[in-house]
Amino acid sequence: MKLKFINYLFVLLLLFISCSDDDVVVNKEPLLGVYTISKSILTSDAVSQNGAASIASGTNITAAIVTAFLSEIDCSSSADKAIEVSENNKIYFICRLEGKQQEQGSWAINDARTEFTLTLLIQGNVVPLKLTGLQESSTKISGNVASIPVPPTLLASVNPLFAGVTDQAVPISIDIELERLN
């Protein structure tokens, strides 16, 4: 009888240990983190309304996109600038080494995890970026953003003819990659 009682206590002890708080798994959103824009490639020609300025599909416009988007935050070094995908569906632009952070918009992901939408405030305008064909990994997020309107000056660093374009916006489509920094 004592042996049965000891076995019973032993089983209860094992159950208690296996159900401790240390074993609780928290379902954390895998997209949360700090990113940089590591690649932006045009997937269709970018053309002014009158056709006077254009950039061919396949052109790498990463530097122009990084400069335009991350110009919203003032950091001591441009290499310090990053995008934080944060809890509560918030997007922050941050200066990583300075500890500076400013709320810049929001994010959402569809149930199928094929579309990741960032709604950002860029140069006083609300800019929705919907990444379709979403690819996620532990090191990056990538997808295609179709037909986003950008000011012609954003494209002038790639083709100087855009500096003289008077269009309010030029629609571009890009494959974009966000590389995780943390």
Give an account of the 3D structure.
The protein is α+β, with helices and mostly antiparallel strands and 182 residues long. It has a single domain, classed as Lipocalin (Beta Barrel), CATH 2.40.128. The chain has helices at 2-18, 62-70, 152-155; strands at 33-42, 46-47, 54-55, 81-86, 90-95, 100-109, 115-122, 125-136, 140-150, 170-180. The strands form two sheets. An eight-stranded antiparallel β-barrel has the order 1-4-5-6-7-8-9-10. A hairpin with a 3-residue loop joins strand 8 and strand 9. The model is unreliable at 3-21 (pLDDT under 50).
Which terms would index this structure?
Lipocalin, eight-stranded antiparallel barrel, alpha+beta, two-stranded antiparallel sheet, 182 residues
Q: Tell me what portion of residues adopts beta-strand conformation.
A: 35-45%
CATH class annotation: Mainly Beta
Helix amount? 10-25%
Question: Roughly how many Å is the radius of gyration?
Answer: 24 Å
Low-confidence stretches: 3-21
Find the structural class using helix and strand composition.
alpha+beta
